[in-house]
Amino acid sequence: MHTIKPNSGITIAGIRQYGKTTFAKHLIRKFVAAGVHVVIYDPLRQYTEFNSHIPQYFGTASQMAEFDSIAGQIWQQHFDAYYNDNSTAQKPRTMLVVEECENFIGQGMAKSAGMVKIVNMGGNVGIGYTAITRRISNLDKTVFSLSDNVFIFRFFSNNDIKYCAEFLPSGYDALLPKLTVGEYLHYKGDGSVIRCAPIALR
Ligand SMILES: Nc1ncnc2c1ncn2[C@@H]1O[C@H](COP(=O)(O)OP(=O)(O)OP(=O)(O)O)[C@@H](O)[C@H]1O
Ligand SMILES: [Mg+2]
Q1: Is residue 9 lining ligand 1, measured as CB closer than 6 Å?
Q2: Is the pLDDT of residue 198 over 60?
């Protein structure tokens, strides 16, 4: 279907129950099959079938502290492997999948320092991100603008549509409230957009 590099940025957005997690799992299976290390941070606990990809939660810390510690560790491990390790060992590749991403790199609120580095520079050290959000208007705009691929499912609120319209070619924003379950707009970093039919469920 889509050729997506594992060290690239991906955003998946849309209101609840229109297909974000289903689509994310489809991408995760492809990354796992390609030998990419996938780490999933999922406050909603929607990924039980990928348990081995879910870090142990500390339970006590705040969600932000917990997430930032995970993102920071991935960043540091890759930074060391790419810049401080001269051995010929194969460099790690990680895809960090984050549900409710607007809570960790939102607009006008405290941001995870680890996630900020991954979004801005992760591609240079083999880290990709998949930012998933129901409230795209709360997501820091660098996440969308630095994503190589954005998959937008249904939205109908003015705030969310206005936010998307800043990035989409004119006219596409009007399609957002019309998308049915599983249907999405695929926006690529080169500015092109394709309206896509729902992926086939396994
Ligand atoms: N490609 C698809 N084809 C057919 N049905 C789909 C497809 N994608 C999603 N659905 C249906 O929509 C429901 C919701 O999908 P999903 O859980 O992926 O949504 P979501 O956007 O992650 O929702 P939430 O924000 O509540 O987590 C699924 O249970 C499934 O029935
Ligand atoms: Mg979901």
Answers
A1: no
A2: yes
User: pLDDT tens-digit profile of 116-131?
Assistant: 999 999 999 999 999 9
Ordered by start, the domain boundaries in the chain are 9-196
pTM beyond 0.85: the answer is: yes
In short, whether 201's Cβ falls inside 6 Å of ligand 1 is: yes
- Atom 4 of ligand 1, residue of closest alpha carbon: 182
- 21 C-alpha vs ligand 2 centroid, how far in Å? 4
Relative to the alpha carbon of 12, which ligand is closest? 1
163 token code pair: 């936010």
**146, pLDDT greater than 70:** yes
Q: Using 50, 70 and 90 to split pLDDT, how confident is the model at 47?
A: very high
In the CATH scheme, what architecture does the domain 9-196 have?
A: 3-Layer(aba) Sandwich (3.40)
